[in-house]
Design goal:
Chain B: One of its GO terms (biological process) is chromatin organization. The complex is a heterodimer. By secondary structure, chain A is of the alpha+beta class. Chain A is 45% helix and 19% strand. By secondary structure, chain B is mostly helical. A 3-stranded antiparallel sheet of chain B has the order 6-5-7. Chain B has a two-stranded antiparallel sheet with strand order 1-3. A two-stranded parallel sheet of chain B has the order 2-4. In chain B, helix 3 packs across helix 5 and helix 8 runs antiparallel to helix 9. Classes of the chains: A alpha+beta, B mainly alpha.
Amino acid sequence: MKGLVSTGWKGPVKFRMPTAENLVPIRLDIQFEGQRYKDAFTWNPSDPDNEVVIFAKRTVKDLKLPYAFVTQIAQSIQSQLSDFRAYEGQDMYTGEKIIPIKLDLRVNQTLIKDQFLWDLNNFESDPEEFARTLCKDLGVEDPEVGPAVAFAIREQLYEIAIQSVASARESRLSKKGRRGSDHGSASKASGLSMDLMKLFSFKSSVVRKRKDLDVYEPVVDLLTSEEVDALEAREERHAR
Amino acid sequence: MAMKAPDSGGSGEILPITPSLSETTSGVAAALQSPQPPSSSSDIDTIYVPSYSRWFSWTDINDCEVRSLPEFFDSRSSSKNPKFYLYLRNSIIKQYRDDHPRKISFTDVRRTLVSDVVSIRRVFDFLDSWGLINYTSSASAKPLKWDEKEAGKSAGDAASEPSTTVKETAKRICNGCKSICSIACFACDKYDLTLCARCYVRSNYRVGINSSEFKRVEISEESKIQWSEKEILLLLEAVMHYGDDWKKVAPHVTGRTEKDCVSQFVKLPFGEQFVKESDFEDGLEAFDQIKGSAIPESEGIDKDGFSPNKRMKLTPLADASNPIMAQAAFLSALAGTKVAEAAARAAVTALSDVDEADKNASGDPNRQETNAAPSGETTRNDSERAWADAKSLIEKEEQEVEVAIKETVEVEMKKIRDRIVHFEKLDLEMERSRKQLEEMKNLLFVDQLNIFFHTRKARTSEDRVEC
C-alpha cells in the first residue's frame, strides 16, 4: 500500500473513501420484464451527471437489453451516488484502524477466497492496484476477476466508512463536548478493527501465528462448468 | 502496413503488453489512403489501422492522446497517471485484437478492466474515434470497391513481396494484393501469376516481368450466363430512353442488376459509337497529366495494346473492368472536378500545340519546296530590300552617333583651352607681382644699407671727436 501509516490520533475527517481515488462501488440488480441484469462496477462521483445516462445507454446497447432498462439503470446509479454524496459532508473518525478484508467471490469460473489486513488510515491506498497485482500474482487468466476483486474491496471499505460516520455521530451525540481519546474506544467497539498496539507489541512478534496462516492465504479455484451451475443454483436458492 | 494479430497466450491478461509482443507490433501501423474501412473479406488475420492513427505505438504516448484525455496527464490524482492510461489503452486494444474481427463493445472492456467505468469509457471512445479499435467495414457498397482494392493493394504492398503461388480455383486470387479478383484480372502465363486489375495498373508485379506479358482474363460471372437476344434488345431500348440512368435501365431489363446491364452494354460491339473520340483522348491525357511520368512505359504499352478494348468500355466510367479509365475516373474524383478539368484542358492545348508545331515544322520545308520559282524570287527580293533598308538605317545611325561624339569632343577641348588661357593669365599676373615685390625688396635693402653706412659714419665721427 502506498503512503505512510499515521501513528497519532487523527481528527475527524470529511467523509470519503479511504483510498487514493474516491470511487464509489455501484451495484446493480435490475429485473424487468423477465430479464435480470446484475452488475457491479466502480464509479467516480466527481464525473458529471450526464455520464450516468451515457453509461446506461451504452450498457443497454452493448448488452442488447430492452430500452426501458436505461432509465432503471440510470436511476439506480443516481440513487447510489446521491447516498454517497449525502455522507460526504459528514465527519468520520478513522483512528488506528486496521481491518481485515475478506474476499469470497466467484467470477465466471474462478473462485477466490482471501483475507488480508487493510489500513483504513491510509488514504493513499488503491484497491484497483491491489486487485491487478493479486490477479497477476495468482496467474488469474480471466480478466473479469480483477474488477470484481477491486469492487469487493471497495464495497467493504465503503461499509466501514459509513459505519465510522455513524459511530462518529453517535459519539458526538452521546458525549457532547468531550473530544479525544474516546473515539478510540468507539471505533474499537465496532468490533472489526484491531489494535495496532496489541498486535505489534514487544510481547508478540510480527510474524503471523501458524493457525492464522491458512486464513490469510489466497485461494484460487477454477471450477468446471458443472460446478459453476451447481453453485449458481445454490446462490439463487439462497437469494430467494 | 497491416499488422498481424498478436497471438498472445490467454485471452485475458490484465498485464500491460509485454516486450515480446512489442517486437511484432513495433512497426507503426499505417496504410490506407482513404478513410473508408477496408473490406473484411480480405485476410482475417491482418488488422487495418487508418493512416491518421499512424502515431500509435505500444510503449509511447502521443501528443494527441495527451490532448484528448488530459485527465491522465495533469497529475491531479496519483492513480490517474500515464502508466495507468497505458494499461487501459493497451488492454483495450489487445482485447479487441484478440477477438478480431469481432467488434468489441464498451461493456466487454469495462468488465475486464480494473478502473472506474467513466475513465474506461473515455479511453474507449478515444480509441474508437481514432480507428484503433472496431475498425472494420460492415457493408461493402459499390463505390467502396475502389477503396477495397486500394486497401488490399496497399496492404499487399507493405506486407510482403507477391508470392509466386497461384490459386487456380474457381475464384482467382490476386498475387499482389491477395484479394479475390472479381471483374477482371490479368494473367501472366510465363511466370504463372495472376493480378487483379488494380495491381496490374499499379504494376505491382515482380521486376522482371513486362506489362505486355499479361493477358486480360474476364471473370465476370455474367459472362457465364449469356445474355439472350431479348434481354439485349430490352437493354438497348432502355439505354436509348434513359441514357446513362442505370437505375432506370436495370428494372427495364428484367432480371439483371445495374452492374450487369452496364457491363453488358459496354461489351456490346457497337459501344464505340457511343464513345466520343475526344473524350477518350482527354481522359487518357488527363490521366497522364495527373499521374505525371510515374509509369510512362506501361501506360504507353497499355494504350497501344488495349486501345480497341478500351474504346468499347469507356461509357460507364465507374465500371472497374477498364482499369485505365477506372483509374482516371478515380483520380479525377480524388483530385476534384476543377483540377481534372484544368488538367484535361491543359493536356488538350499541349496536344494541339504539339500538333501545330509539327505542322509548322513540316510546313516550312514544304513551303520552300513547292513555292520555289514564282514566289521564291519575290520573297527573296523583298527580303533583300528589307535587308538593305535595315542596313542603311544602321549606317545613318552610326553617322549620327559619330557626329554627336565629335561635337562632344570639340566642346570638351574648347573648355580645356579656355581654362589653359585663364591659367596663363593668372601666371602672368603672378610674375608681375613677384617682380614688384623683388624691386621693393631691393629698395628696402638699399635703404637699410644707407642707414647702416650713415650710422657707421656717424659713430666713427663720434669716436674721432671723442678721441
